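Can't attach files on this board, so I'm pasting raw text. These are the components:
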Amino acid sequence: MRRDHMKSVLPRGPITLLGNLSETRYWVYLLLFPSLILLLLVVAYPTLYGFVISVREMRLTRPGLNGWVGMKHYVAMMSDRVFWISLKNTAIWVTAAIAIEVTLGFVAAVALNRNLPGTKLFGVLILLPYFLPNVVAGHMWALLLDPRLGVINDLLVRIGILSTYKAWFADPATALAATILVEAWHGFPFFALLFLAGLKGIPEDLYKAAAVDGAGPVRQFRLITVPMLKTVIAAAVILRVISLVNSPDLLLVLTGGGPGNATQVLSLYAFQTAYREFNFGYAGALSVVMFILLMLFATIYIRLTHVTKE
Amino acid sequence: MATLSINRIRKSYGALDVLHGIDVDLEDGGFLVLLGPSGCGKSTLLNIIAGLDEPSAGDIAIAGRSVTALPPKDRNIAMVFQSYALYPTMSVERNIGFGLEMRGVPEQQRKAEIRKAAEMLQIGHLLDRLPANLSGGQRQRVAMGRAIVRNPDLFLFDEPLSNLDAKLRVEMRTEIKRLHERLGTSIVYVTHDQIEAMTLATKVAVMKGGYVQQLADPRTIYERPANMFVAGFIGSPAMNFIRGKLLSDSAGARFTSEGVIVSLGGPGGANGTRECVLGVRPEELKVVEMEDASLEGVIDVVEPTGPDTMVTAIVGNQAVIARAEPRFQGRRGDQIRFRVDPSSINLFDAKTEARIDVGDASLIRPIHENGFS
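---
Top answer:
Structure tokens for the assembled complex are below.
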């Protein structure tokens, strides 16, 4: 009796309607709809617009110059000295930072995976740099490395490595290396976190079997750990390369691309072209080149690591 | 082929003692099963034999050579894991040959050995596949292939059949037995499955709480269990336990309980009683009519299984289960009588739960010592 009563009332409620809808094949589209709209508005449209302005003239300083210019910006780029310097610096910056971050991340993850007393606390401490916004981390390191007040200069002089305080970011010989170290410090917890998750997914029995089979720690690492983490490593490197290539914020805070163009990278160059020189057309062209380079990198990298095979 | 001797092995994690001085010897070519419920220390003991875990005290010797200080790879053992522990990124062929590869066996010879082991296990056609593309039974075979190909002194099996379905488990059990008979290599095998222990072992160590409760061949374990734990752990359905008294007087010794009298014969004379537990296997309870019945009760449940019919009866206030013939006709509420052959029973002390040997003088002696008579 009671069941019949409930049956006759329930279908009219909005929750019940939603429930019925969730049983149909339209449900999946309904769930995708909000994020699709968001993606179209804030990703697809600006990206397309970026492609469009890269073949147009658009300078806020000279509003009169307007209209279709075709490949003009791309041709100009080929003879732009700063572009080539930025490209080279971007390659050095990304490669060096990733190499340091992967190494530090791996060491940290292997250590944290040991489950010794204290590793939980260490796990949180190690993640702290990653939680700091880039701009905050930048200002912090600017202060630490400050040529007059910097505690690092003070320490190095006291130990006897340096004779006088050094302006790390002002010397073209050390500026890029110093910013790479800061970026690596900021970024390695990302790798530590992902590698740790990957390591936890490797069954303990595999190492036991390998120990019985006669593989020592080095071969266990090379033949079990690394192949098992291949997918994680590939994904982490791609994500990190994209974020490194696209984010000028740390360099903006630390050096602004200087001294000269010693720390100029593509993202910062595009940013400055757009918001210092207000030359949006050329900045758009620079961004398109970055976009294509990233796509090429990701494609080749995925091919090389064979991760899609498994 | 080699002997194994486990001498006074202890293991503790901090204040927690997991193994309390284990002594087990295995003959050359023997099959030792470490049997017990989870947490009894059997897997820890196996890991200690393998060198994957260090004992707190004691010594392990394989082929007469102490290996306690050696890493796993130098013990000349091969191990099969419950999870199979196949390397997911390597082909079946490389998985099987991994131990040989690590030992620097040349590729030509390696391939031949792999081929031989794979043929023996009927997985020759799977060599190019990755473990992820194999069924559970095939993975099991690959794991065994990896062990066989090494031609070790000793095989270690850690619950190798637990992850298989019931039908496959029986097949692989037979396969393991066949393999052992063919290769003749000594095996240590950990399981909680008493049927695996009974069917495979030449020697069973029943473990509980970090102690070996009994170490003997399967038949002895089954027929003459050392205590009530071993008696109850081995056999399905489990051995019947009937609480009662052991009486001894001039007429001889006998066990009595409500609805139960089992005459044990033996030496009369010494008078006394003792609280004890009668253990009798379901197949030793023979359904009889009136004559010389030892147990008398009422049928509670009748369960035909095909080859047998299991009959649960209430005797006094205790339930007993008997393996009756398949065409048994009794029904719930019927009177039923069983005869017990005195030579087939086991007696346990009610307090210590340890075995009392029937016909042995010790049967009577404690009664004297305790001042009865």
